[in-house]
């Protein structure tokens, strides 16, 4: 169904939405990453370089549990930033 | 059988003394207490025995034992002799009866089998009764839903939600009434036409789920193949008649493709059965994909077919839409503008947004705004600093891997990813004034730019 929303958008809007989506996700992850100590950062690098999907899910659940809240805040922040940019 | 024994008079022990140490005198006869116990235990087993032949057999063994006991005696008194004679007669009678029982055994087995068949029939009948009762309970529930008032938006929403809940609960055993009840609920849904956010999406998802259940439980229906196929086709076609952005003709064709695939995986023949479903696929591309898949399936092993069947069935339950209220809550947290909330609360404008969206965006003025917005987004989203490799990889993982690059946050953040995607679409359109245009159309006042 998500695909259906995207597929019903003209290509330029679809790309814009996906770009925004990606940026929000990466920024949120970055925000959560900053809160980790060095050991956990090293653990994250090791796990996400492996092929173990279960470990990846566990890591997100155990150490980035507040990611959903961060995502919500980042979405709010990024849309406000866009609004500040001058659009004629 | 004879237990001839002549009393050895010269060795005859005194009547006051036991023939062996530990023996006791009972009713004028010396008896071994251990053997008495054994006799008693046989008696007990005889009591416990349920069948006549078991009783005979026990009695025979007991008689044999008693006879042996008398025969083993070093001397026999007149009572013993009389008892021996009686026991021999009894033994011979019992032996004859046992042999006759053995002769009757095949007959008995036959009778037992008949009883077993009878028991199975009873069990089956009980199961049928239970199924009838469950189905009746669902019908009662449906009747209650039908009685629910729906004269206000709120009541309509409650009624529709109950309908969806009942379909979800019922669909896995709806083959018991050949899906008549489920189709009845759909009629009730179609009558309601509620103004609920994403109603169309929920309905599309439910049509798909019921159609997949119909195919998955194909062998359980109590109808001949021809009628089953007719019911499946008529259900899907009827439910796709209503205009629904989320269930367009291609979506219906994809449902038929999934049904055909499931039936093929269940080894239902193509000619005369699966082809009846395939012939209703209108889009030639989907049709040829379906046929190619069916021929691929024919070559698969049984194990592979089982695996594919599981995957196809799970496909429809993978991407569950979040509840409208939760999306609304999420929108409020993100700080959605009143324009966005307005369009979100009006399902008609929302579906128009998607159906007319492309048209609006062809407007040269809007095209210009798209360019400007893209520049603004690039400036605002410009990455500051270096992003660690683990962040990029974690983002890829959350999005669902390289294969599903355009499926936002499917794996771990389905509901929130869904809400944010929808919000971003609405946000972008609001910035382009596309929402103003649509809102104006919804109230009949097209806004001039």
Describe what this molecule looks like in 3D.
The complex is a heterodimer of chains A (88) and B (449). Chain A has helices at residues 2-7, 11-34, 38-48, 53-63, 67-84. Chain A has 88 residues and is mostly helical. Chain A starts with a helix and ends with a helix. By secondary structure, chain B is mainly alpha-helical. Chain B has three domains: 13-113, no CATH class; 148-318, no CATH class; 324-381 and 389-442, no CATH class. Chain B is 71% helix and 1% strand. Chain B contains 18 helices and two strands. In chain B, strand 1 (24-26) and strand 2 form a beta hairpin. In chain B, helix 4 (153-170) runs antiparallel to helix 5, helix 6 (199-216) packs antiparallel against helix 11 and helix 8 (249-265) runs parallel beside helix 10 (284-299). The chains are: A mainly alpha (88), B mainly alpha (449). At the A-B interface, helix 1, helix 2, helix 3, helix 4 and helix 5 of A face helix 6, helix 12, helix 14, helix 15 and helix 16 of B.
């Amino acid at each position: 169904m998500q695909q259906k929303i995207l597929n019903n958008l003209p290509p330029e809007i679809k790309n814009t939405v996906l770009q925004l989506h990606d940026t929000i996700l990466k920024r949120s992850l970055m925000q959560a990453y900053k809160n980790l100590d060095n050991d956990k950062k090293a653990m994250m690098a090791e796990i996400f370089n492996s092929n173990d999907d279960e470990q990846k899910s566990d890591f997100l659940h155990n150490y980035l549990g507040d990611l959903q809240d961060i995502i919500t805040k980042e979405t709010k922040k990024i849309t406000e930033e866009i609004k500040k940019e001058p659009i004629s | 059988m004879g237990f001839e024994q002549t009393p050895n008079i010269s060795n005859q022990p005194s009547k006051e003394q036991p023939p062996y140490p530990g023996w006791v005198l009972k009713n004028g006869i010396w008896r071994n207490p251990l053997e008495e116990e054994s006799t008693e235990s046989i008696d007990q087993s005889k009591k416990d025995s349920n069948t006549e032949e078991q009783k005979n057999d026990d009695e025979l063994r007991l008689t044999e034992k008693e006879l042996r006991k008398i025969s083993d005696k070093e001397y026999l008194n007149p009572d013993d002799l009389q008892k021996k004679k009686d026991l021999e007669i009894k033994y011979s009678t019992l032996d004859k009866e046992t042999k006759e029982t053995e002769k009757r055994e095949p007959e008995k087995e036959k009778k037992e089998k008949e009883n077993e068949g009878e028991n199975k029939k009873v069990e089956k009948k009980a199961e049928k009764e239970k199924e009838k009762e469950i189905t009746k309970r669902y019908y009662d529930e449906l009747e209650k839903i039908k009685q629910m008032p729906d004269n206000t938006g709120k009541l309509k929403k409650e009624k529709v939600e109950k309908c969806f809940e009942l379909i979800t609960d019922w669909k896995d055993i709806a083959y018991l009434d050949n899906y008549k009840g489920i189709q009845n609920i759909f009629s009730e849904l179609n009558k309601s036409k509620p103004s609920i956010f994403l109603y169309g999406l929920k309905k599309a998802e439910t049509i798909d789920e019921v159609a997949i259940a119909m195919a998955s439980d194909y062998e359980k229906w109590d109808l001949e193949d021809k009628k089953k196929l007719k019911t499946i086709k008529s259900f899907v076609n009827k439910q796709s008649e209503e205009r629904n952005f989320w269930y367009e003709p291609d979506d219906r064709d994809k449902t038929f493709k999934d049904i055909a695939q499931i039936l093929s995986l269940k080894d239902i023949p193509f000619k005369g059965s699966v082809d009846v479903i395939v012939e209703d696929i209108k889009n030639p591309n989907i049709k040829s994909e379906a046929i190619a898949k069916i021929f691929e399936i024919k070559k698969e092993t049984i194990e592979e077919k089982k695996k594919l069947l599981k995957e196809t069935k799970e496909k429809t339950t993978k991407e569950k839409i979040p509840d409208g209220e939760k999306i609304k809550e999420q929108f409020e947290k993100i700080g959605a503008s009143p324009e966005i909330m307005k369009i979100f609360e009006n399902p008609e404008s929302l579906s128009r947004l998607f159906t007319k969206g492309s048209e609006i965006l062809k407007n040269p003025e809007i095209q210009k705004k798209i360019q400007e917005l893209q520049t603004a987004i690039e400036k605002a989203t410009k990455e500051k600093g270096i992003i660690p490799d683990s962040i990029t990889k974690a983002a890829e993982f959350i999005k669902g891997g390289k294969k599903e690059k355009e499926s936002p946050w499917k794996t771990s953040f389905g509901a929130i990813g869904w809400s944010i995607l929808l919000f971003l679409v609405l946000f972008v359109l609001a910035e382009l004034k596309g929402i103003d245009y649509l809102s104006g159309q919804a109230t009949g006042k097209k806004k001039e730019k």
